[in-house]
């Protein structure tokens, strides 16, 4: 029988189960949660960035552009490449790269 971990999103208080060896993003999607935007699901686009506030986890390969070493030290990771080793408390934070594509430029009037 697979180990099951409880993942809790800090601000909404919503929680869901995640099996050992399953990514946090996949568990979110299976439970219909839409906490973060979803892109490539392969650790390359940076859309599904979360911060782990409590608990232990391991990471798969992630883009160093979106998760540089200093972000990893702060436990800012991609949900598609995070696998819980204990129950986790996370904060969902939509990535700036995902938002940037939707922003428009404005110019000052002279």
TrEMBL record:
Transmembrane segments: none annotated. SUPFAM superfamilies: 2Fe-2S ferredoxin-like (SSF54292). The lineage of its organism: Bacteria, Pseudomonadati, Pseudomonadota, Gammaproteobacteria, Pseudomonadales. This is Ferredoxin. Gene3D superfamilies: 3.10.20.30. Residues 2-96 form the 2Fe-2S ferredoxin-type domain. CDD domains: fer2. One of its GO terms (molecular function) is iron-sulfur cluster binding.
């Amino acid at each position: 029988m697979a180990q099951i971990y409880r993942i809790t999103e800090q601000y909404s208080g919503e929680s869901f189960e995640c099996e050992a060896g399953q990514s946090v993003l996949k568990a979110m999607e299976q439970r219909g949660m839409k906490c973060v935007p979803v892109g490539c699901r392969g650790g390359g686009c940076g859309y599904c960035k979360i911060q782990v506030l409590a608990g232990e986890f391991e990471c798969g390969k992630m883009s160093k552009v979106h998760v540089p070493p200093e972000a990893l030290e702060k436990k800012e990771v991609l949900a598609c490449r995070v696998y819980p080793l204990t129950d986790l408390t996370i904060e969902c934070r939509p990535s700036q790269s995902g938002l940037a594509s939707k922003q428009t430029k404005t110019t000052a009037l002279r």
